[in-house]
């Protein structure tokens, strides 16, 4: 369904929007979807990161691909639109290990890096739905700051 | 480190498509034997792209699918991802188990689809390896029953850990009377792509 109020954010991408718009990213696997929200002005940003850190990257052209550089980039973007850092609250979802017998724990490493980055920046993560073994689609409502999470078989929830 | 290829010419895309054709043709033959009916193939896309752009060239969504991925290694490094929609996976399970009611989340059916994916990818890789005179080996399969976009996203992420660009072969297997449609995605690392292009050049004599 096409929803003109909804902005779709791709892999290794980010977007910022204000009430009444919604921000969405489809099919998070081991990637992590990160939102920050300034309640006072109803402004939110959504970032879809793939890897934990830009420090080990070969190609550093896209900061939104990595947890550490992506979060900093997202903060710059929301600040440009008027958000104030001390009012920001973060929510995160994703970082799953979908293949039971695969030993690659990138989802877990992504989550760890996201949490560390927010801790360093002193921004609270107020809610999360992370890990486990299934993919997630998320929709962030900038009117309320609610993060809607959809999955194929594990139901839907709001955080 | 060698300079990595970031763009391909029309001729190179054409040659790569042909190679994809040979691989998928053989995979179609093994699917045809498995389900005992005729299988058509279709090659919609071949693209060299930044990994994060690849989802834009594939037909994924958040509807659930049965997805099996395998790593390929040795002379060619990359991933093969075999995706069947829910209805297609059900049809395949029905044919193989001769049962009418199929519950896809059942572990027996997941293993069945995992084996089917492995057989198809195995035939595909063998065909490429014979044609190109390259040594290519294939890992054990990993299967998930989940959103197609999330499965692709997972594989791309794992791949992006090692490389920035990937070559995508997007191919389809169609069994019309059984309503089966399978998507076969091959993702090659840039260095392997280079090896492949050198091989093609030798074979074509230019």
Explain what this protein looks like in three dimensions.
Chain A has 159 residues and is of the alpha+beta class. Chain A has one domain: 60s Ribosomal Protein L30, Chain: A (2-Layer Sandwich), CATH 3.30.1330.200. Chain A is 19% helix and 35% strand. Chain A has helices at residues 67-80, 106-121, and strands at 6-8, 13-18, 22-28, 32-38, 43-49, 88-94, 125-130, 136-141, 146-150, 157-158. In chain A, strands 1-3-8-9-10 form a five-stranded mixed β-sheet, with no helix packed on it. Chain A has a five-stranded mixed β-sheet with strand order 2-5-4-6-7, covered by helices on one side. The longest helix of chain A is centred in the last third of the chain and has 16 residues, at 106-121. The radius of gyration of chain A is 15 Å and the shape is globular. Chain B has 206 residues and is α+β, with helices and mostly antiparallel strands. Chain B has a single domain (10-204), classed as CheC-like (Chemotaxis protein chec). Chain B is 45% helix and 29% strand. In chain B, strands 1, 2, 3, 4, 5, 6 and 7 form a seven-stranded antiparallel β-sheet that branches. In chain B, 47% of the residues are buried. The interface between A and B is medium-sized, with 33 and 32 residues.
């Amino acid at each position: 369904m096409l929803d003109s109020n909804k902005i779709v954010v791709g892999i290794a991408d980010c977007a910022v929007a204000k009430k009444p718009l919604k921000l969405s990213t489809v099919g998070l696997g081991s990637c992590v979807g990160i939102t920050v929200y300034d309640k006072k002005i109803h402004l939110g940003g959504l970032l879809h990161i793939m890897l934990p850190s830009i420090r080990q990257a070969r190609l550093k052209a896209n900061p939104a691909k990595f947890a550490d550089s992506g979060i900093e980039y997202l903060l710059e973007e929301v600040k440009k639109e008027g958000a104030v850092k001390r009012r920001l609250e973060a929510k995160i979802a994703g970082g799953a290990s979908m293949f039971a017998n695969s030993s690659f724990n990138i989802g877990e490493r992504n989550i760890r890096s996201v949490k560390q980055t927010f801790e360093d920046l002193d921004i609270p993560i107020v809610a999360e739905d992370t890990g486990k073994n299934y993919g997630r689609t998320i929709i962030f409502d900038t009117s309320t700051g609610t993060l809607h999470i959809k999955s194929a078989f594990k139901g839907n929830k709001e955080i | 480190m060698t300079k990595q290829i970031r763009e391909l010419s029309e001729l190179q895309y054409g040659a790569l498509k042909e190679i994809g054709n040979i691989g998928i043709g053989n995979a179609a033959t093994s699917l045809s034997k498995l389900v005992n009916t005729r299988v058509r193939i279709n090659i919609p896309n071949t693209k060299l792209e930044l990994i994060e752009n690849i989802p834009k060239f594939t037909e994924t969504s958040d509807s659930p699918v049965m997805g099996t991925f395998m790593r390929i290694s040795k002379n060619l490094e990359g991933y093969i991802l075999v995706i069947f929609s829910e209805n297609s996976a059900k049809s395949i399970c029905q044919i193989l188990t001769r049962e009418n009611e199929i519950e896809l989340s059942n572990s027996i059916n997941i293993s069945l689809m995992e084996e089917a994916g492995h057989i198809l990818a195995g035939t595909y890789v063998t065909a490429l390896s014979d044609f190109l005179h390259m040594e290519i080996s294939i890992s054990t399969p990993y299967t998930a029953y989940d959103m197609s976009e999330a499965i692709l996203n997972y594989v791309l992420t794992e791949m992006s850990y090692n490389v920035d660009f990937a070559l995508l072969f997007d191919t389809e297997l169609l069994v019309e009377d059984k309503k089966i449609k399978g998507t076969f995605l091959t993702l090659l690392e840039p260095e392997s792509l280079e090896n492949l292009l050198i091989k093609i050049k030798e074979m074509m004599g230019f």
